[in-house]
Amino acid sequence: MRLICLALVPFLLQAQPKPQQQPPIEADATFKADVDLVSIYFSVRDKKGGLIPNANKQEFTIFEDGKEQNIKFFTKETNLPLTLGLLVDVSGSQVRLLEDERRAASQFFPRVLKQKDMAFLISFGAEAELLQDFTNSTRLLRDALGNMKMNTGVSGIHASTIPSATPKGTILYDTVYLAANDKLKSEVGRKAMVLITDGMDQGSSYKLSQAIEMAQKADAIIYSILYADPRFGNGFYRLDDSALRKMSEETGGHLFRVDNRHPLDTIFDQIQDEMRSQYTIGYSPTNSRKDGSFRKIEIRMLNKDLKVQARKGYYAVR
To answer: Was domain 6-15+80-275 assigned CATH 3.30.70.60?
Structure first.
């Protein structure tokens, strides 16, 4: 598949037919019938960051814009399908890391995907490329990983075809925005993106705030993996995880850092464990207006030593 410029990314992301997904179980369909129901997927961690898999409904209260809400349902695990997007940085700074990313991801997909789950794969550098559209086939995903190549080209043309003074090196924010909008927004159930990148963005048309907003509107959790080559730039390469941290925290995900103690394989295992340790909580908001505004959400626990990891809010759209 040829590389594409940003202007063609939405077309490519929508062009390929999607395999038929199994419908949600009947109980979940009942939840979806209530258009005012807000459902939140979240994790609970202790002071040391360990996952807590055995909390119960009585331990939680939930607030929207500071007002307590009546919890309508609470589950420790869900049978809803998982739709997962893996977004891999293949810009010049990742050249020494590509093979490790390819190998670890090839092992991750078979572990995390169950029969009714779907996944897609996008690589990004100066441009973004959909390497594999929605599929449940780990073979197709593995083949797509095998076709993943470095993308170190530099383009001075934005989607509007107007020349830009800012060259494109790593369109991280654009890729997150388009994956959320064109691939995940129309899906139901659990939705997540896993980013493997050094966290640097150069030349995106969308801002960080816009990428986060679109992920929130798609109800997608972002798990960020900071993976950087310390040799890149002859030691003058300055790492900054602030953008990745913000994307993950605002959407209910987690930021991981690859180092000697935490190799990429281990981090993939941790993401898999977190997905299997999620809770779901739902309520009908007392503010029923669908005015498109952002509503802040806070989930509190009786045990102050435990921390809830959930998205910060949602957009009240029709």
So the answer is: no
